[in-house]
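User: I'll paste a sequence; please echo it back and then give the predicted structure.

Assistant: Echoing your sequence first, then the prediction.
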Amino acid sequence: MSPSPARILAALNAVRPLDRASPVLGRAVVIGGSVAGMLAARVLSDHAESVVIIDRDDLHRPGHRPGVPQGTQLHALLPGGFLQLERLFPGFREEALAHGAVEAPPASRRAYLDGRLKVVVPDDADSLAGSRPLLEGLIRQQVLRLPNVKTVAARATGLVVDAGVTTGVRCDVGGLPGVESGDLVVDAMGRSSRLSEWLEQAGWDRPVTRRMTVHLNYATALFRRREAHPDRTVVLALHSPRVSSDVAGAAFFAIEDGRWMAMMAGYGDNRPGHTAEDFVRRLRDQFPPEFGEVAGNEMLGDVLTYRHADSRRRDFHALRRFPAGLVSVGDAVASFNPVYGQGMTSAALHAVCLSTYLRERPDLRVPARRFLALQKVVVDAAWSVSTSADLALPHVDGPYPRGYRLSSWASGQIVTATVTDVTIARRFNDVVSMRRHPRSLATPGVLLGALRANRRTR
């Protein structure tokens, strides 16, 4: 009997890097220097004699990458993702703190739902707060220090496939065509990945792309932070659709260089916080007092906005025909509503799937079905959390899964109970941070506990 998705996700969360390198392939090629690409390269460095990362950006240049247009927005590092980073890069926490990241233990994190302060889970996992350029830059530095990893500044233009086996990547280097050969190719090109088109053009099947339109608008602003060690480092305030129709929520984090980073989000035609005046006014008037205190500080620079049209996933696992020596990771496979902060943690778990697959010393001349099966568990878990919440939004019109009304009612009871019940909140946090599978919430015991907690607070 095959293990359940819940057991598979638990096992992936328990995987640790190899103590010693164990090469099973000669050369690996990663297309894209994203967080997902870097984490894949880190894992590949344990299993390949050499790894090359192809990206149009100069990956050795510090700071914000032009290839990450949303990089200036607020990004969350879920506790599950932080745990994986610390495993992949021992000492990551200390290095991040030395570069200005801020510790975010449970006691320093605060969350509100419809204005009600949620219970603090005392033994929840630690995390870090910092900007996307800081966290991504530290990951990149750690990977590029590895002796068997190098980068190539080029534009990937296609695959080289010979007798059903991927043998390299076509690329354009300074206007000249070339090929980077490899025994395994990893697509980490993000939401705009061209892998589907390349497969179709070469006569292979194109994966089905599933979308859920959300039309999220979000805005981020920076404020000066006076406290070197604030009591609250991460504060979130979410509004359910029944309470607010124009603003979905807001959050602020303490980040490096003595700054607060604050974010505000809305859906459809609602663009809360798109001007400095509107941003400050809403923080003061529509959210708990902590938000008004942040808004009372000097705003640094302009409000930066971004639009996320849809969540999407490419179902590579469902393809009947797929080249050997090829996998895809990160947003190239699935990208979610960024409000839930799943991106970096999902990318880390995809890297763990790759490590698990390569530890089994697979035959790279056959399609990586084992990897795709592991990755599907991770994608399904994140997709379930993201889309179940999005389906509750009034402007989202399906597709609704079978039994949606019942599951939506049960989810609502559990989410409401997280405001007051430590046990329910702890289980819910484990699922949201991708340390446990969503099915761990779908038990009679959890639902009964939620109903009892909600009855006590009426």
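The chain has 13 helices and 18 strands. The radius of gyration is 22 Å.
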